[in-house]
Design goal:
CATH superfamily: Spore Coat Polysaccharide Biosynthesis Protein SpsA, Chain A
CATH class: Alpha Beta
Distance between the termini: 36 Å
């Protein structure tokens, strides 16, 4: 029986991918877990492919790589690995996030003691130790403008101190139970890149599971933030795709300006 299946995307991740994969393998070994790693290589042109082939030679069948010829986004790519995952838990991890055994074991234990916690997310920190805003209320139009223009100010606020329910967590590091994945299904492939994480959390709630934040442990996330421009002049194709994804999200789940109706439909506070 496989304890944990990790799902990692790689797109021009030469700077990160080796550290990410090795952190997972080292965490499995240190925690005495039977784990596998799936990497979906999304058409990189920066040398990531060569690094992954070297890693496959090193780790053998524990590392399985899907080599794609083009970037298919976050949903179609991750779904390839989610379909193949055999673990009792599924760890979704960005290529620029690095696992550690203490966080992995603690999240597994927390989820085991809270079976309705279909998704558990740890504290995310930048490499220099700064807190990273990784859980939040469901986005509304006004909240997205606040994050767009004042994310750094939001991150200066005191982070949540207690473990418990949150609306959603960004998909840089998710620990999903297999039961939650089976009940919720795969990621919505009509979203190319973001906010697939919000959509999936809404669907988890709808399926009868909860999203939990577990701040007792932390994971380093060296965030690339490719959809976050440096000022209006820095708007790029990922920013535009993110905006289109948000519009789709609001239409799909029938909200946008407020959350009361969405909460009622999800029985979020029932």
């Amino acid at each position: 029986m496989i304890d944990v299946s990790a799902v990692v995307l790689s797109f021009n991740s030469k700077r990160y991918i080796e550290t990410c994969v090795c952190s997972l393998m080292a965490s499995y070994d240190a925690a005495s877990l039977n784990g596998e790693v799936f990497v979906v290589e999304n058409g990189s042109v920066d040398g990531s492919v060569d690094i992954l082939k070297d890693l496959q030679a090193r780790f053998g069948d524990r590392l399985k790589v899907f080599y794609l010829t083009e970037n298919t986004g976050t949903t179609r790519s991750r779904n390839l690995a989610l379909r193949a995952a055999q673990g009792r838990a599924v760890l979704v991890l960005d290529s620029d996030a690095y696992m550690n055994p203490e966080a992995l074991l603690a999240m597994l234990a927390y989820q085991a003691s809270n079976p309705r916690a279909g998704l558990v997310a740890p504290t995310l920190i930048y490499p220099d130790g700064r807190f990273q805003l990784s859980v939040d209320v469901f986005p509304t139009i006004s909240r997205k403008f606040e994050r767009f223009f004042a994310l750094r100010e939001l991150e200066k606020r005191e982070p949540p101190a207690e473990a418990g329910q949150v609306d959603y967590a960004i998909s840089a590091c998710w620990l999903l139970s297999k039961q939650a994945v089976d009940a919720t299904g795969l990621l919505d492939e009509r979203i190319f890149y973001s906010p697939e994480d919000v959509d999936y959390c809404i669907r988890l709630w709808r399926a009868g599971f909860q999203v939990h934040y577990y701040p007792a442990v932390s994971v380093v996330h060296d965030a690339q933030e490719i959809s976050r421009p440096k000022g209006l002049a820095g708007i790029n194709k990922f920013t535009i795709r993110h905006a289109k994804g948000l519009l789709y999200l609001f239409l799909k789940h029938r909200y946008g300006f407020g959350l009361s109706g969405l909460y009622r439909r999800l029985r979020r506070f029932a």
